[in-house]
Amino acid sequence: MLPPIVEIKPDVYFTGAFDPKIRTFDIIMKTANGSSYNSYVVRGSEGVAVMDTVKKEFSDDFFARLERVCEYDEIRYIVLHHLEPDHSGALIELMKRAPAAKLIISGRAVMMLKGIIKTDIEYELATTGTVISLGNKTIEFIMTPFLHWPDTMSSYLHEEKLLFSGDVFGSHYYDERLFDDLVGDFSYAFHYYYDHIMRPFKQYVLQALKLYEKFEIDLIAPLHGPILRSNPQGYIDKYARWSSEARFRKNEFGTKMLSVFYISSYENTHKMAEKITQGADEVEGIRASMYDLASLDESNMITLLEESDAILIGSPTINGDAVKPAWDLLSCMAYLERTGKIGATFGSYGWTGEAPEMLHERLKGLKFRLPLAPLKIKLIPTEEELKSCIEYGREVSEIAMGKMIEITL
Ligand code: FEO
Description:
By secondary structure, this protein is an alpha/beta fold. The chain folds into two domains: about 5-250, Metallo-beta-lactamase, Chain A (4-Layer Sandwich); about 255-400, Flavodoxin domain (Rossmann fold), CATH 3.40.50.360. The chain has helices spanning about 60-70, 85-90, 90-95, 110-115, 185-200, 200-210, 230-255, 270-280, 300-305, 325-330, 355-365, 385-400, and strands at about 5-10, 10-15, 15-20, 25, 30, 35, 40-45, 45-50, 75-80, 100-105, 125, 130-135, 140-145, 155, 160-165, 220, 255-260, 285-290, 310-315, 340-350, 375-380. It is elongated, with a radius of gyration of 25 Å. The termini are far apart. The mean pLDDT is about 95. MU-OXO-diiron binds next to helix 2. In the N-terminal section; belongs to the zinc metallo-hydrolase group 3 family. Pfam families: Flavodoxin_1, ODP.
C-alpha cells in the first residue's frame, strides 16, 4: 500500500519513517513510545530539496514517501542538518538515485562525513546566513553546533516561516498523527529528550535560540517525533527555561554549591563524609550538603551534579573497585556540562583501597579540576584522621572559592 502524502505546509512534505518498536536509542535513552526519523521535502518552482534522510533500515519507507512527492531528477539539493546515522542512513542510495543533487552540510560535518559514509562524495558547505533558492522557496542556514553533535545545523524556510531544527526540539515519540496538536501527550518525551540529548549543551542551546530569534517561526520540523505547529514559541520558551534554570537556582542562594556523595558499608566512609561536609561548610560562600548514594535516584543525582560547583565522592573499596552506586553517579555526567567543576574523592578501606584513586581517574577523564589527591583512611578513622577529613573538606571549599593551588595531575 502506498504511504499517504503528508503536506506539513504548502509544498513541504513529510518523508520520514516511523519506528514504533524501538525501545532504546543511542544506548542511553529509553523510548517507551518508539520514535520516528523525520525527513522533509521542499518543493519550489525551480526544483526540490530533500531535508535529511532516515536510518538505513527504514530506507524503503523513506523512498516510498519520497517518490510520492517528487521525481529523483527534480532534486537539486540534499540537506543533511546532522550526520548521525539515524538521519544519514539513506544518503548514499539517495545520491545514487538523484545524481544531480548537491549535498549540503556544515563545515564541522566534513571530518565526520567520511567516517560515517565511508566513501568520497561531493558536498557544498553551508554557514550561518548561507541561502539556497528553489525559485519561490528560500532556505537560509543557521549553524547550531553541539546540538547535539558538532556538525549540527538548522535551516529556515522563509516563505513558510518554517524552522528545520535538526535534533533540537525533537522527541522520541512515535505517533502517525504527526502534528503536536493531534498526537497523544508527548510532553514527558519532549522533556526527557531535552534532558538526555540537549542538557549537556545548554550554553549552545541558548546560543541557538538567540540565532532563531531573528526569524518568525510558525512551525518547527524536528528530526524526531511530533511536528510542532501549535504555539512553536511555547516549545522555544521551554528550552530557554530549562537551559537557564540551574543558574537561576544557584543565584537564589548566592553561594557556591558543594556536594558530598558517599556510600558506606560499615559507617567508616560515612564518618569521613560527615567530617568533610562539616569542614567544607565552614568556608564562607559555600553551601555544603551530603548525600547517601544508597538512597538517591538518578534524576536527583543529575540535578545535584548539575548544580554543584564542587563534587566529592566517597566509596569503600570492595574487591579492588569502587562500588556500583559511585560509578552510577559518575555515569550521570554523560548528561551534563562539567566545565570548571571541581572534584575530589575519598574512602575508607580494609586491604588495598583502590576506590578513591579509581574514582579520581574517572573524574580526570571527565575533565574535572582535581586539586587534591584522594583521601584514604584504613578501616575506622581515628580522631586525628577525622580532623584531616575536616581539613580536606575545608581545603576543597577554599579552592572552590578561588584559593590558588597547584592542580594535581
Ligand atoms: Fe537524531 Fe542525533 O540523531
